[in-house]
Amino acid sequence: MTVVKSEFLLALNQVAAERNIPAEDVLSSIEQALVAAYKKEYPEVETNENISAKINRQSGEAHLFEDEKDITPPGFGRIAAQTAKQVILQKIREVEKRTVVQHFQSHIGSCIKGRVIRFDGYNAYLDIGKAEAVLPKEDQIKHEEYLVNMTYTIYIKEIGNDKYGNPRIVVSRNDVRLIEELFKREVPEIANGSVIIKKTVREPGERAKIAVAIGHGTVDPVGACVGQRGVRVQTVTDECGGKEKIDIILWNSDSKLFISSALSPAKVSSIEIDEKAKHAKVTVEESQAPLAIGKGGINVNLASRLAGYTIDIIQIPNTSEPAKEETKKTEKTG
To answer: The pTM is what?
Structure first.
């Protein structure tokens, strides 16, 4: 029975050449699929494990065999033709998917725009052009909504496999490298090496601190990252959802000076450092304590991670207010 015409074999070879699919692999897959289709279509027929399908590579004839006996049933040609078509289309999709994945393999570590196409309550799936990416729950910004057709800037984190073994592009919204890549894109001085990003720490959606230093030349690294009227840092903030405050910190090899800067916007009175224990005791006035600690301890925790020291905040009475009162008394008596 001629199920697969010779014209089909010619077409298969053409498609295989265009798509870079081995024709023999496709034919072998069709033969396996024909056996599965036969068992599904004729469940009443007792079968054993020795059933096989063979397609003549010259004529295109397809037959089913059981222990060398031809058992091809009448009317099986239609099922076989549909099966062959499905297998070829599946092979084409697999090759296209591999090609797309290979393309994005070279983009791992970069930022890209993605449009939400669905959200299952846990993972968000985004259209990134020619491919679909998954934004897992653990890579999302807390309290951020992922509604269909909303567009986000995402960080291409890795290419892994789903539970079925299919490749998937994994992206992130809360990776610290997202902020670094955004600054590289917005600040030419980082791209040309005039400014270097030394370290970045982040509480996604709340606050981030990025330490920068001079690479070469005399550029002001903090000013370059902030931009005129704060436009550059604001652009990065907007790309991160608009609520995440970003502190640009000047890197300093002097631990005391760096910790003091890292605790910005608080003003530090004094710092005692235990280099061996990597511990810092930071004294601030009472009025500066809330700024140094931050809401829920976020500022001091980020500063600690940025500097690599455990930081304890010690409060002392404000010194400026009594001085003001003393000045008033002097004015009255005068």
So the answer is: 0.70
